Amino acid sequence: MEGVLLLNKPAGMTSHDCVAKMRKLAKTKKVGHTGTLDPDVTGVLPICLGRATKIVEYLTASSKTYEAEITIGYSTTTEDSSGEEISRKSVNPAITKAEIQEVLHSMIGEIEQIPPMYSAVKVRGKKLYEYARAGIEVERPSRIITISELILLSDIINKNNLTKFRFRVTCSKGTYVRTLAVMIGERLGYPAHMSHLIRTKSGDFDLKDCLTFEEVEEAIESGNFQKSLLSIGEALKDLPKLIIHDTLKEKVKNGAVLELPLNFQDLNVGSPIAVYGENRQCLAIYAKHPTKHHLMKPTKVLMNES
User: Fold this and answer.
1) What is the mean pLDDT of residues 297-302?
2) In this model, does residue 196 exceed pLDDT 90?
3) Overall average pLDDT of the 125-130 stretch
4) SS3 of 297, please?
5) Quick one: 240-301 is in which CATH superfamily?
6) pLDDT tens for residues 231-286?
7) Closest CA to 272 of 248, 239, 228, 227
8) pTM (two decimals)
9) What is the dihedral of CA 172, 174, 178, 179, to 10 degrees?
10) What sections of the sequence does the record tag as coiled-coil (predicted)?
11) Of the CATH numbers 3.40.50.2000, 3.40.50.450, 3.20.20.140, 3.30.2350.10, which one belongs to the domain with range 63-193?
12) What are the residue ranges spanned by the domains of the chain?
């Protein structure tokens, strides 16, 4: 059993919990996820099984799309609805649609973001949430993120001196959407937090193609689970592709350095190339050689030992 499962992660489970459950369901230790989702967040979580665990690093997509709800009027320790309230300000007068759209538009492009205290970012060898749980506030390094889409999805609800609305964001890897919600609130002049979040896309992996755990269990019971998985080759379809003759297959299996075809010469050093056999099975990941630019060297050998 090997391949990539597109899981529709349920609320209430960490990404690690999902991996642990898949190990039991699939009866294999070789399971890994491709990007952490907070327990309250649902949506696209690609999970690798068997040999596919070797390609996890190539599936941590550069861009992701989320649909979120923001609540404006109070902020929390965790920047989402699971935290304790730390600041409140009645929303009065009501925020207009034009004001919200202006703020959303102003945040498209490259912006600076400071990771939240309740996050897995490491500072001086410890994860930020470890400091947060100990009640210690530390200086956090800012990062540049890219917002390529940020649009209003819903009507604006003004009730009980709070304002709520939903938005869709497509952003670069490493973006904290709950922090983005706080930033939106700040630009509107109020404390805010993220009150709901679902990841709808991770790279080209779409929520509509994901399975729930219930569907996974049904597929395993019926013997159709392997058919539910993306093959390694399908999962890597966005990488530059090189198809080799079977005469080179043994060399690839043994991790040999190969000539870099002319049509790959413009690639950056270290850029991954998916190498396929004549049967379209992905055999290995190669990369342009760091010093001998007419050659490429293996970074991952994926084919079976047999």
Assistant:
1) 92
2) yes
3) 84
4) strand
5) PUA domain (2.30.130.10)
6) 998 999 888 999 998 889 889 988 999 999 988 888 888 889 999 988 888 999 99
7) 239
8) 0.88
9) -100
10) none
11) 3.30.2350.10
12) 3-61+204-234, 63-193, 240-301
Q: Is 3-61+204-234's fold the same as 63-193's?
A: yes
CATH number corresponding to 3-61+204-234? 3.30.2350.10
Q: Is 65 exposed, middle or buried (0-12, 13-18, 19+ CB in 10 A)?
A: buried
Annotated catalytic residue, options 38, 209, 238, 246: 38
Nearest residue to 258 (alpha-carbon basis) of 225, 227, 217, 299:
299
Residue 38 among the catalytic residues: yes
pLDDT in tens, 280-291: 889 999 999 888
Query: What is the structure's pLDDT at 238?
Result: 85
Nearest Cα residue to 267 out of 234, 296, 245, 244: 296
With 0-12 / 13-18 / 19 or more C-beta atoms within 10 angstroms meaning exposed / middle / buried, residue 8 is buried
252 burial via Cβ count (<10 Å: 0-12, 13-18, 19+) = buried
**Each residue's pLDDT tens digit, 10-54:** 999 999 999 999 999 999 999 999 878 888 899 999 999 999 999
Q: What is the largest CA-CA distance in the chain?
A: 73
The alpha-helical segments, DSSP class H, found in 93-222 are 97-106, 128-133, 177-188, 213-222
Across the chain, what does the average pLDDT equal?
92
Q: Is 125 left (phi over 0), alpha (psi -120 to 50) or beta?
A: left
